[in-house]
Amino acid sequence: MVAFLAALSGRSPLFRTGTERITPAARELLHAHGVSAGELLVAHVTGAWAPSSRWGATCPEDYVANVDALETGARIIGFFSLGAEGDGSPGDDTRVWVITGAQDDTGTRRSTLILLPWEY
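Structure (tokenized):
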């Protein structure tokens, strides 16, 4: 589904998400900001966690770790700020995280979770 949505947006997915899950609190925050989970997942799989992107609140070090993870199979974590007033800082209550697990022994990423920072 995410690959299909990414294609509709004109962007190619960089990796597969596996099973997608969202916590109730994250779903509520997305709803409050008029953002769908699918829209956020497309941003995640197309690398919109870059600090220069629309929502990207990922620091440069974590951005580099995510880029490396595309090659190594390590965990990919996107930090996003949903509100115009959000700056991605620890006190920003518009922050949401999207975490895709590391590849298993078969090279498959099994799951992705959308959650709020305090739920980690």
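The mean pLDDT is 85. The two ends are 25 Å apart (CA to CA).
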